[in-house]
Amino acid sequence: MFEEAEMSIRKRMEEIMKEREREIQTQHEKLRVKYETEIAELKKRLEEEKRKADEEKIQRENEFRQKEDKLKKEFEKKERTKQKKRETENQKRSEEEKQQRAEYHREMEEMKREIENQRLQFEKQQKQRKEEDKKRKEKYRQDQEKMKHENECAMAELKKKQDEETKKRDLVEKRRNEEEKERLRDGKEK
């Protein structure tokens, strides 16, 4: 009768220990899935941000080229008109020609300055975009390190719980063996 009760208790203790191990394993699996999901979402967000940044870069380059082409065409059209006028008037006076040449050089310099300003503005925007990309990558790295650290802490906590459960189980088993030895010893003495 006593042995049946002891077997029942031992079986129940083993079932409890197995159930705790299953719970710990389930928690471990949930943490792993959560970590992988967060990493995937972070990568997806970074790729989307990179795609948008690339599209914006292409758009800015196209706008810059269009502005440059427009300035050149306007200048060429204006020059053709002036040239035609100069030819029609048969270059009336040398002073007028001198003034026209000066005006031509002034407009040429103005156009060069405009194009240079556009180029500097474009390079500034590119530099800002690179800095933003660098910051996003650094943030991604930090987030990844943070999640890795949190996952390692969670795994360490689970291992600690497993070790505690193992120690508790070993202690119960040791006590049971000692009680069994004591009972056998008492039985022999009687």
Automatic annotation (TrEMBL):
| Positions of the UniProt region annotated as Disordered | 45-190
**Which portions of the chain have biased composition (kind: Basic and acidic residues)?**
45-79, 86-190
Query: Which domain of life does this protein belong to?
Result: Eukaryota
Q: What is this protein called?
A: GTPase IMAP family member 8-like protein
Species of origin reads: Cirrhinus molitorella (mud carp)
